[in-house]
Amino acid sequence: MKLPTLSPSRLQRAWQCAARCDATLTSEDWLRAFWYESGWLDGIAMAKYDNGAGDHVFGFFGADGKAVLKGFDHESGVSPHAREEYGIWPGIYDGLPPDLLRLLQDEAVECEHVTFCCWSVDGLSWQAGRALIPEHMDDGSAWLLGMVQMNAQEFIEWAKSYYEENFDRIGESGVCAQFDAGGGGVA
């Protein structure tokens, strides 16, 4: 499993900027890929990336620096749907502190739809469970974490492809301004 390259606070800011830019690009909620809700639960912000094709990442960020990410790549062999007997891949949630696991148990998060999970208890470093995933199997963490860790230029390239003609409504300078103002312009 790949771990995020950004600290929890930088990842939270990048995700928040992506959600703000995404909302600027479309007023159609069903077309948006990035979401951010600062007051999801007492002291907890919730972020979501959903590509509309069955793949998603949820992120929860606490004011205390704790964070948890849960991702699901619907084509992964690690998916509960790909297993002979339906179930979460053994070890994915091993070691996840109970207060962070509780956040993933919300019905909207679909706790069982998981191919990777990682968390931070110190606000600095990331860790993952003890899932033993064969080298030939992809859990989706590399590409899905890449989506939520985009810098301004990467977001612009993604938005041009995703929104096509609608992207011209705000242009590159508008998207960059959103990222730079929100601290999401990370390298």
Mean pLDDT: 89
Q: Numbering strands along the chain, what is their spatial order in the largest sheet? A: 1-2-3-4-5-6
**H/E series, N to C?**
HEEEEHEEHHH
Distance from N terminus to C terminus (CA atoms, Å) equals: 21 Å
| Low-confidence segments | none
Largest sheet: 6 strands, antiparallel
Identify the overall geometry: globular
Number of helices: 5
Helix/strand-derived category reads alpha+beta
Number of strands: 6
Specify the helix fraction band: 25-40%
Strand content: 15-25%
Give an account of the 3D structure:
The chain has 187 residues and is α+β, with helices and mostly antiparallel strands. It has helices spanning 8-25, 98-104, 141-148, 152-163, 171-182; strands spanning 34-41, 44-50, 56-62, 67-72, 116-120, 127-128. α1 (8-25) packs antiparallel against α5 (171-182) and α4 packs across α5 (171-182). It is globular and about 45 Å long. The two termini are 21 Å apart. The mean pLDDT is 89.
Notable features of this structure?
single chain; 187 residues; alpha+beta; 6-stranded antiparallel sheet; 5 helices; 6 strands; 19% strand; globular
Brief summary of the model shown:
The chain is of the alpha+beta class and 187 residues long.
Strand and helix map with partners:
Elements (H helix, E strand, L loop, with lengths): L7 H18 L8 E8 L2 E7 L5 E7 L4 E6 L25 H7 L11 E5 L6 E2 L12 H8 L3 H12 L7 H12 L5
Antiparallel strand pairs: 1-2, 2-3, 3-4, 4-5, 5-6
Helix pairs in contact: 1-5, 4-5
